[in-house]
Amino acid sequence: MSEVFSIQLSNHTTQPDGKTGVWLDLPATAEQVRAAMGQIGVTQDNPWDYFISGFSTPEGRHLAIPYDLALASGVNELNFLAARLEKLDAYEIGALNAALQQKDTELRTISRIIDYPDNLDYFVNLPDIHTVAALGDYYLNRSGMVDMPDEWKSAIDTAALGKHIAELEQGAFTEYGYIVKSGDQWRQVYEGQIIPEEYRVLSFPPPQVERDEASRPQPQPEQTAPASQPVIPIVLTGRNNAERMKEITDRLEAGIQALFESEQYKNYLTAMSKFHNYSFNNTLLIAMQKPDASLVAGYNKWKDEFERHVKRGERAIKILAPAPYKVRRQVEKLDANGRPIPGPDGKPLTEEQEVTVPAFKVVSVFDVSQTEGREIPDIAVDELTGSVERYQDFFAALERTSPVPIAFEDIESGAHGYYHLEEKRIAIDEGMSELQTLKTAIHEIAHATLHAIDKDATPEELADRPDRRTREVQALYSAFQNVNHFKEC
C-alpha cells in the first residue's frame, strides 16, 4: 500500500489542543492503526479518547478534500476512502480536486467521495483551461466540435464564446482546470452503506483472558441482582456536527413515533420519569438507548467528579448538548426605548455587535451502571413499594387538586380506575395498595384535566382532540412523573 493521505491522531486527555499526536498514513492495516493508537495512549480501555487532529497529503499528489471534513470523519471511513483513491491516476485525481473546488460541489461528504471511483465519467475536466478565453479557444480550435473555415474563426471573440459556454453548461473554473458535468447519471454504490469489513481497521478486541474466562461454565448464585441492560447505541455516520444533528433528530422523530404507535411506551415512561432535569429530547434519547438508566454523565465527569471509570467495552449513550457560538453581525442601533435610530437617509443606523447563536452538538454520556469505582450513595431509583408514608394526606391533596369528584367502587372489568366523560367523575378500584391507588388517581386526574370534552363543542373543535393512544401516553407520563418523583423525595 502507498500513502494516499495521512491523518494525525491525538488523545483528548493528554493532547486536548490537537497540536501534537501521531501521524498515520492511509490506507493502513489494523495492526498499524492499533500501534498508532497505542503511541497516544488509546487502548481498548479508553477507545473514545482519540480524535483526528490533522490531515495531510503527499507532495505531488494533493487532494483538495476540505480539512474540516476530514477531521470530522472516522478512521475506518477515511481508510476506505484512501483505499478507493489509491488506484486513481493523476488525471482522475485532478478531476476529483476540480470537482471538490466547485462552489456548489456535490461531493460534500466523505461517503459521496468514496463513490467517485465508480463515477469517473460523471465529470469532464480540462486541466489546462482556467479562463473563459481559454475555454472559448478550446471549443473553437481544439475540441473538433466547430466546423468552419479558419478565417471565420479569427473573427470570433473567444472570451465571449467561453463565457457563453460556461454559463450554458454550468461549468466552473478551478485551480485544477475547468470542470463540467458530462450528463452521465451518478451511481450510488457505497454511500449510505456500512463500510466493508476489510477496511474497518479501528477495533479493540477484548483481551484473550476475558474471552477464555467467559467461555468457562460459571456457577450460578442462588439470587442475583437484575442485570443492567446493554446500551442500544445510536450509530451516527455524519461527517460533521450538522449531519450528526440531522441523524440524531431523525432518530428522535422515529422514537417519538414509536412512543405513540407501539405498546412499549410504559417502558419509555419508566425511564423518562427518572430524568427531571433533562429536556424531553434528551430524556427520550436516553430511554431509547438504555431504558434502565438512572444517572448519566460524561466520561471525564465520571472520572474527575465522581472518581469512577467507565467499564471496558461499554457503549456510549448519545444525547444533545448546547454548543452556542458567537458571531459579529450588523444590527440596528436602538434608542433608550428600544426603537431603531434613523440615519440621515431615513434608514435605521446599524452597528456591529457580537451575538450568541444557539446551537447544539451530539455528545456521549454513560449510565452509572456502566461505571465502577468510588461508591455513590442513593443514586438509584428504588422499586415501587405497596405502602406510602402519609398516604391519607397525599390522597386528600389529590382530591383537592382533581377537577372532578373521586370515589371508590368495585370495578369488575379489571381496570384500576376510569374517568367518566359524561358524568364528570373518577372511579378507583377498591382494595388496591396505597401506591397503586395514588398512581391510578394521578393517572385519571390527568385524563380529567387534559381530555375533558365540552358537550357543546363543535365537530371542528373535537377534531383537534388527541386520539386515544395519545391521551393514554399523556396520562401515563403524568402518572409516572409524579409517582416516581414523590417516591424519590
Write the layout of secondary structure elements.
Layout: E1 5-11, E2 22-26, H1 30-39, E3 50-56, H2 67-71, H3 75-85, H4 90-100, H5 110-114, E4 123-126, H6 132-142, H7 150-153, H8 158-169, E5 172-174, E6 177-181, H9 208-215, H10 241-261, H11 265-272, H12 280-289, E7 296-297, H13 299-305, E8 308-310, E9 317-322, E10 325-332, E11 350-357, E12 360-367, E13 371-373, H14 391-401, E14 406-409, E15 417-420, E16 425-429, H15 434-450, H16 459-463, H17 468-488
Parallel strand pairs: 14-16
Antiparallel strand pairs: 1-2, 1-3, 4-6, 5-6, 7-12, 8-13, 9-12, 10-11, 15-16
Describe this structure in words.
This protein is α+β, with helices and mostly antiparallel strands. Among the domains are: 325-358, no CATH class; 391-488, Arc Repressor Mutant, subunit A (Orthogonal Bundle), CATH 1.10.10. The chain is 36% helix and 17% strand. The chain is built from 17 helices and 16 strands. The chain has helices at residues 30-39, 67-71, 75-85, 90-100, 110-114, 132-142, 150-153, 158-169, 208-215, 241-261, 265-272, 280-289, 299-305, 391-401, 434-450, 459-463, 468-488; strands spanning 5-11, 22-26, 50-56, 123-126, 172-174, 177-181, 296-297, 308-310, 317-322, 325-332, 350-357, 360-367, 371-373, 406-409, 417-420, 425-429. The strands form six sheets. The chain has a three-stranded antiparallel sheet with strand order 2-1-3. Strands 4-6-5 form a three-stranded antiparallel sheet, with helices on one face. Strand 15 and strand 16 (425-429) form a beta hairpin. Helix 11 (265-272) crosses helix 12 (280-289). The two termini are 62 Å apart.
